[in-house]
Amino acid sequence: MATFTSKLATAAIVAFAIGSGVPAAAEPATTASDCVAAGDVWVHVEYDDTTTGACATEFSTAQEATTSAGLTEEAGPFYTTIDGRTANGTTAREWWSLYSLPAGAGVDEWDFATVGAHELTLEGGQVVAWVLQPDWNLDAVAPAADPFAVEVPVEETPTASPSPSESPSATAAPSVTASPAPSASATPEEAAPGLPKTGV
After folding, report:
1. What keywords sit in the KW lines (predicted)?
2. Model's pTM, two decimal places?
């Protein structure tokens, strides 16, 4: 009896936990300040006239952070495409440089990564940056923008349109097949639109 009672109590606790509105995992922050304050890593990106970024909730390495932030689909550790921008390494000799900013450091204290993204280890509260360089024969230039001052547009979730079952259906509205057709009881003269009833 004691075992049965214990099982009932356990089941009740599980049911309460499920039904009590246990909060789901929070969405990643949309600003660098909120991201690092939450103990995550902000991934900053600069290329052409674009400055953007995203929050990474998984970030043991820069490779993992870049993927977690949704800024690349490549496996790394060296990248050709970040945020949809592919470096033209054939004719323009472009390349993506990697920087990191220690937690609490000023925005002029960027560290240039001398290792690949898979070897650059990170900790929560840091910022990592990808900067598109125009020529591998030139010295790399550190990020120009302050990640904490960048406003990244938030994509609004599109409002779901009513499903077919929620909107008036074709059978609910009057239709040609739902009402008697005029030609069923009309004479040929009456059924021909636009003609006077003269038989001509």
Report:
1. Signal
2. 0.65
